[in-house]
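Usage

Read records sequentially. Each one opens with the input sequence:
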Amino acid sequence: MPPSKKQPNEQAPRALFMISIAASLAGMHPQTLRIYEQKGLVTPARTPKNTRLYSQEDISRLRYIQKLTSEMGMNLAGVEKVIELEGQIKDLQQNIDALRQEVKQATEKLRRDVEAVHRSYRRELMLLPKNEIALRKRSRAGRRPGD
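and closes with the structure output:
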């Protein structure tokens, strides 16, 4: 999977590379990086003077985009869709992981509750003397159906 786009609540990776160096590291022309930024495929950091700065994560993302376009023959619309779907898969996987954790916790709580109920049965059981058990058996045997 490609490096993800920066989310608002995530800390941005350290941006180190100006556009010419980033383009060189990614193996593409600086104008290509500008186009990718316009399409929203990459979002470089900006200095106070509005200079683009790319992080190592951005470089990895640019290489991934280049792989999709050059090796797999995708156009930028296809790349956008692939990245969008991969983001959805990542989100869904996180949801699945969270649900698995909830199920695990609920299962453990249920197991503890069942054990507690079973322990309470043992406290409620009373041993009866043998002669009382025999009397109860005889009294049940002497009953007629419907009594």
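Summary fields computed downstream for this record:
- Helices lie at 19-26, 30-38, 56-71, 76-124, 130-141.
- Residues 92 and 140 are 62 Å apart (CA to CA).
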